[in-house]
Amino acid sequence: MSPIYLDHNASTPLAPRVRAVMLRMLDAAFGNPSSAHWAGAPARAAVEAGRAQVAALLGCAPAEIVFTSGGSEANNFALKGVFFHRQPPRPHLITTQIEHPAIVEPCRFLERQGVAVTWLPVDRAGRVDPADLRRAITPDTLLVSIMHANNEVGTIQPIAECARIARTHGVLFHTDAAQSVGKIPTRVEALGVDLLSLAGHKFQAPKGIGALYIRAGTALEPLIHGAAHESGRRAGTESAMLAAALGEAASLARDLAPMTRVRGLRNHLRQTLQAQLGDRVVFHGETGPVLPNTLSVSFLDTTGAEVLAALDGVAATTGSACHSGQIELSPVLRAMGVAPEVGRGTVRFSLGRETTAEEIDTLLAQLAQKPWRRRRP
């Protein structure tokens, strides 16, 4: 049986157009983009063209885009950059209980530097209440960081409303948009954010390249010091190939029309599972807007690992892990109040632009005939 890839929230395959750009760049732009001579000029042109394409995706000026090695670096740059630039006496930062580790771990680091971090709760759908944010802001708050869409359950956060609250209090607002780029609109003016992170491998670019949008006038201490690359904001010679690849992927991501078909496939998967299994399945994050490609479902009376092991050639992700014989829920499901006996059976299916109806029907056929679906405690 042909393998079925339903783990696009973890990483996406290269788009053919992106691959073609990368191959062309291997020979076309070998010079240092900072060099003034003939060999550096094509590389510099490729870097700036890629920057303009990313800016067009986000609806900002090219000068507001800084290339990074990926989403994790962009997140670290945003959080640490704000703190180390300002370093007030009683620094305070606000985030949520369902952030990606690329936000959680920098926050833990900043706590060790004396930063007070408020971890906002979420409801059972995984959504933040803007009223909680309003109450959490203090005169010492430097930054609010709330992910645009959750990687596990697909819940979309009320970013525009939360950003308005932060702006009213004169507080910078950052969003991790790694999961939303290429799936839903991510225009920075509509969102009202000051900082936005993206990761190339989440939307058909290669691993090792990402970007941070920094609103004009927003000052950050560089995360990487050295020469004055990226207008002095991120030292290190830029990769013309990776910048061009990210730019091409960003151009493709601007077209959200394919996500209508993907949403239809996702809904078909959900509706058929509900019809086949009834009260044997529980879906997560569905009382509000969710990403068009993401379905988080718990299969009762089993574990997510057992479900995936029983499937033939299907790549997906569980919502729990087994440590020393104990099933441990992900922090996201735990924050949403999912009961351990339910969360242990969670599987995340995340579809992509190339996912076919035949693949979804094959998955459903496999799920319909597995013996674990008939077990009772």
Nutshell version of this structure?
With 377 residues, this protein is an alpha/beta fold. The chain contains 14 helices and 15 strands.
Describe this protein's structure.
By secondary structure, this protein is α/β, with parallel strands linked by helices. The chain has 2 domains: 4-11 and 256-374, Aspartate Aminotransferase, domain 1, CATH 3.90.1150.10; 16-253, 3-Layer(aba) Sandwich (Aspartate Aminotransferase, domain 2), CATH 3.40.640. It is 39% helix and 16% strand. The strands form 4 sheets. A 7-stranded mixed beta sheet has the order 2-8-7-6-5-3-4, sandwiched between helices. Strands 9-10-15-12 form a 4-stranded antiparallel beta sheet, with helices on one face. Strands 1-11 form a two-stranded parallel ribbon. Strand 3, helix 4 and strand 4 (116-120) form a beta-alpha-beta unit. The mean pLDDT is 94.
Topology of this protein?
Elements (H helix, E strand, L loop, with lengths): L3 E2 L10 H13 L11 H19 L6 E4 L2 H16 L5 E5 L4 H12 L3 E5 L9 H7 L4 E5 L13 H10 L3 E5 L11 H4 L3 E5 L10 E5 L14 H4 L7 H14 L4 H20 L3 E3 L10 E6 L4 H7 L3 E2 L1 E2 L1 E4 L2 E4 L1 H5 L4 H4 L2 E5 L6 H12 L9
Parallel strand pairs: 1-11, 3-4, 3-5, 5-6, 6-7
Antiparallel strand pairs: 2-8, 7-8, 9-10, 10-15, 12-15, 13-14
